[in-house]
Amino acid sequence: MRCFVTGGTGFVGGAVVRKLLAEGHQVRALVRRGTNTRQLDGLEVERIAGDLNDGAALRDGMAGCAWVFHVAALYAYWGYSWQQFLETNVEGTRRVLEAARQSGPGRVVYTSSIATLGIPKGGMPGDEETPVTLADMIGFYKRSKFLAEKVAQEFIRGGLPVVIVNPAAPVGVGDHKPTQTGKMIVDFLNGRMPAFVDTGLTIVDVDDVATGHLLAAERGTIGERYVLGGENLSLKQVLDILAEVSGRPKVRTRIPRGVALAWAYVDTGLARLNPRHVPAATPDAVRVSAKREFFSSAKAIRELGFSPSPAREALRKAVDWYRQNGYVSQAIGRH
């Protein structure tokens, strides 16, 4: 089966491409000029030059494709304006889905995020039905993904066969940038995480997320959305697992969120003075940590046959990959 993928040069999109190829599908990938293509290098992928602004490239890429996976997104907490998030995540999604409407694939899988979902009070995990509004979205990324999902729902109401997936915090092979969660792992491995805040997240192997995308294309109900998560863990639990699988010392110091927020303001101030400096955490990221982002994948497990692997194995894969690919200082070693 021929498939078209946006975002194939990224972390999740690259995993989707690899999974499609492993299952015997033919893959076309949209490739922005000048972007790093290491995720696609060595793979039998037809590359379509263009970006989310290029309607002709999108239509050419989708021509004759049974499945379209729109994975591309701007994911960052620093260094981009609201206009850039709006143009890429919201209007980019609109252009992709409009091209799909014209091209007529059998199924479109849109990659949203758990960032668009509500979080219940009391620490219970959220799901696809937890109430949420735009006012609950903290930061440009969350707001843009919330609005982009609304665009997808508009096209669903217009008859486009779209299934939405909401991945949690993916870790594992191929996180080249790395992502926010990946940066936390790299910082831990390099001894740059002396303390933690009391928060939580849903850890999932990026390869399981990719499998979830294919399951959504095969079995997902048009118009529905599916959380693709794994284990709900406190940040302290994640760090303890990282210590166990890496041989690095445990992080034992917890800092109050107010202190973390104050430092985030200082760190972002330094970044504004020095363009080469990337803040360890922005104020928005600290505010997001005030709620444990725990989510249930019960619907995907029940309806798609989604089966996430243990978080320990996903984190071990991530540790091994970062070490093998030069993200960890050799001077640090394993102890």
Order of strands across the main sheet: 3-2-1-4-5-6-10
Approximate shape: globular
Q: Assign the CATH architecture of the domain at 2-171 and 203-231 and 294-310.
A: 3-Layer(aba) Sandwich
Tell me the helix content: 40-55%
Instruction: Look at the structure and give the CATH class of the domain at 2-171 and 203-231 and 294-310.
Output: Alpha Beta
Q: Based on the structure, what is the oligomeric state of the protein chains?
A: single chain
Instruction: Describe the largest sheet.
Output: 7 strands, parallel
Tally of helical segments:
11
Might you state the CATH topology name of the domain at 2-171 and 203-231 and 294-310?
Rossmann fold
Order of helices and strands: EHEEHEHEHEEHEEHEEHEHHHH
- Percent of sequence in beta strands: 15-25%
Structural class based on helices, strands and sheet pairing: alpha/beta
Distance between the termini: 47 Å
Mean pLDDT: 94
Q: What is the number of beta strands? A: 12
Question: Nearest-angstrom radius of gyration?
Answer: 19 Å
Low-confidence stretches: none
Name of the CATH superfamily of the domain at 2-171 and 203-231 and 294-310: NAD(P)-binding Rossmann-like Domain
